[in-house]
Structure formats: C-alpha cells, structure tokens
Amino acid sequence: MRDIYFDESIILLDLEAGSKEEVLTAMASNLEEKGLIKSSYLEAVIAREEEFATGLPTNGVSVAIPHTDVEHVNTKTISVAVLKKPVEFGVMGDPNEMVDVELVFMLAMDKADSQLNLLQNLMQIFQNEETLKFLANEKDKTKIVNLLENKLDFSF
Amino acid sequence: MKTVLIACGAGIATSTVVNNAVEELAKENNIKVDLKQVKISEVGAYADSADLLVTTAMTQKEFDFPVINARNFLTGIGIEDTKAQILEELKK
C-alpha cells in the first residue's frame, strides 16, 4: 500500500534563500502546515545538518538530502526544492568542505527500515546528470511529480 | 568473519543504502561479513568488536579500526575506488 505523501504541493520551485537554514525553514514550514511533520522537525533537521552535513557533489547539479529522526515525522514524504540561486551546504562526510547546492530533497521518513528501494532509487537519480538537470530547470510541477513518481516507484 | 559497522547520522537513510551496497559487494566476492547498521553516535559501543567502519558521517574521533568514507555510494562518483578500498580491508 502506498504510504507516502507526494504531490505538487510539496515541490517548491524558484525558492529564494540566502542560507541553508532558510532553505530548511521554508521546506519544513510547508510540510508542517500540511501536518506531515511535527513542529519539532525544523529545529531537529537544522541541528542534524549542522552536525552531519548532507550536501552531495553530484555530477552536473549538486544536491542535499536533509533529514532527521523518525520521531519528528507524521507521514512519510519527500519534499523537493529547486533553488533560485545555489546555496552552500556542507559536504556529507567532509566537515570542512562546502558545496553549492541547487536541488534539495528533504526526507521525512517515518520508519527506520523498509525504505531501501526508495532511497536506492533516489541515489539512482543523483547519479544521472540528465535527470538532475531536468529537475533543476523544469517549471511545470506536474512534470516533476510525474518524473519522480516514475523514477522513485512509490508502489511498494 | 569480519564485523563491519555501517553508520550515518540518523542510522536510517544513507546507511541503509550503504549497508545494501556493502552486502552485495561481499556476496559478489564470496566474503562472509557481519554488518551492523548504526548511528554514528553508537559506534563507540562496538570499539572492541568491529573490524571496519564504513560511514557517510565521517568523524574526527580515532578508532582502532579503519574508517572508509562511503559518500561515493550516494553520488556514484569514484564508487569503484571505494569498493576496492572496502574489499582490501575485508580480505585482510
């Protein structure tokens, strides 16, 4: 049964932000308004990003996958933000390195297991420069949703 | 059999992907491993029993076992080098 919330309303295009905190705040506020996450998520995800950065220097378009513990989540979802201008995130695993991120996938996971397929499919997207460029430039949210629905395969 | 810790910040997202990749790698090479998926903050509890740490959340802490950065499993860039590094440790 499909247990993930995913539609146009959690895709943010042309998001203007001057810092990663602003990106995280905009994305989490949107999810909180929809009741998908608890109010504690924002603070937790900012703290986690500070301690364990999630920026990934992927080919073509760099991404970040901010996330935090399952207890802050009501309904599993993946919010996507396309940033108007790149924002600096720390590089995962290299605390002193930064990367200019254009695409942010905020993961709100509600269980510690059973999302291997979803995450693996997400990493497949990260390894496909063409798909990343499409996502970074597409202005039609429905097309973005359709592409991700297809590539991530939520039907597990 | 080697005990390999697979860790990330939350112990739920990136370590899940890395755990599966290392499991496949070991299987392809007919190496038996004991994989433990943990939060990076829990690694200390395995200080005496682990042989290797593969992690996306590199830490400044020093351990008695080698530590390999697993970020390449997520970006796909340099993934063969990382696999070779892991295999070398598993075969020791």
TrEMBL record, chain A:
The keyword Transport applies. Residues 4-151 form the PTS EIIA type-2 domain. Gene3D superfamilies: Mannitol-specific EII, Chain A. The keyword Transport applies. This is PTS sugar transporter subunit IIA. Homodimer or homotrimer. Seems to be a monomer when not phosphorylated. Keywords: Sugar transport, Transport.
Automatic annotation (TrEMBL), chain B:
The keyword Zinc-finger does not apply. It holds the Pfam family PTS_IIB. One of its GO terms (biological process) is phosphoenolpyruvate-dependent sugar phosphotransferase system. It comes from the Bacteria. Keywords: Transferase. Residues 1-92 form the PTS EIIB type-2 domain. InterPro entries: PTS_EIIB-like_sf, PTS_EIIB_2, PTS_EIIB_2/3. One of its GO terms (molecular function) is protein-N(PI)-phosphohistidine-sugar phosphotransferase activity. The keyword ATP-binding does not apply. This is PTS galactitol transporter subunit IIB. It comes from Salinicoccus halodurans.
